[in-house]
Amino acid sequence: MIIDNNIMEAQEEDAQLDSESEEENSELSDEGLQEAFAKGLLKPGMNILAEEPKKLVNNAEGMKHCLAGFRKDLPWVERLDLTNLPADDIIAKAEGKLPGATSGEVDAEDDFQREMFFYRQAQATVLQALPLLSKLGIATKRPEDYFAEMAKSDQQMQKIRKKLISKQTMLEKSEKAKKLREQRKFGKKVQVEVIQKRQKEKKAMMSAVKKYQKGMTDKLDFLEGDKKNAKGSSQPIKKAPNNKGPNAKRKYKDQRFGFGGKKSGKKWNTKESHNDVSSFRAKTAHGKGVKGGKKGAKGGKQNKRPGKSVRKKMKSRS
To answer: Rounded to an integer, what distance in angstroms lies between the CA atom of residue 203 and that of residue 297?
Structure first.
């Protein structure tokens, strides 16, 4: 490879000259800055890089030219574009208010007013487009026998169906479990109420029995139980009369055991009982007048009391 020495030397000289000129410029700039700093001309915040403002260009002619370049003269059926004002606000007219706001009067910050303006504009567009479509013979309603091609395959729809059915069964099971839990709670509640009712009835019956045993009442209506309650549930329960004087139990005891005073010698004869011979029977007194001799004799009156084994049988039968 042949290298020209003259060319190399010339390039080295140019590089040296460039470096010398840069050093001189830097020295000049440094000296100028030092002098400005010494004079107090340099202050913090004075040296700020400022960007040039962008120039906004509204090239309307160029935009129109570009629009004419890609515009296509297509029929309205292909474009379906309409430019119209919003429909009349019927509610405002019925209430006697001012007519609806135009495009220039709509407050963009008011969400309700803005959305209502869009709604009324869409309504006016539909009312204008439907007659045009009917003139062109374009159907605007789907026929009853219309079958569209599904976007998803049948296999995927089967998977979705299985998943939905499984979710439904799980929901039904959970609902059934909830109902069973509620029924159990209700059953336990009813059972507790029945037990409490039985205990209450038992308590009332025991108190009635105690009252009868103490002689506070002589009625046995509490033995009838539910029959009486079912028949006379509508009738008010009458309280036992609080009669003065001894009750039936006391009377029975007085009759049997006495009621104070002398208790011994009750079986002794008195003058009246001694003179009273109305119950005397001569035929039976001391076995006299009985054919066949005394009691127990042969041919006489036999003892008709049954034997011990017969009495036991009779007790077991009863």
So the answer is: 61
Cα dihedral 248→254→257→259 (10° resolution): 150
Token match 């091609």: residue?
149
Q: What is the pLDDT along the chain (318 residues), one digit of tens a residue?
A: 444 455 556 566 666 655 555 555 555 467 777 787 777 776 666 566 667 888 888 899 999 998 888 877 888 888 889 998 888 877 777 777 655 554 457 788 889 888 988 999 999 999 999 999 999 999 888 888 877 777 888 888 899 999 999 999 999 999 999 988 888 888 888 888 888 898 888 888 888 888 877 777 777 776 766 555 555 555 555 555 556 677 888 888 888 877 666 667 777 888 888 888 787 777 776 665 555 544 444 555 566 788 888 888 888 887
Q: How far is CA 46 from CA 29, 87, 132, in A?
A: 17, 61, 69
Of 119, 85, 84, residue with least CA distance to 105: 85
Please answer whether residues 111 and 105 qualify as being in contact, where contact means their C-beta atoms are separated by less than 8 angstroms: no
127-136 burial: b if 16+ Cβ within 10 Å, else e: eebeeeeeee
Question: How many angstroms separate the CA atoms of 171 and 169, rounded?
Answer: 5
Burial degree of 314 (CB within 10 A; 0-12, 13-18, 19+): exposed
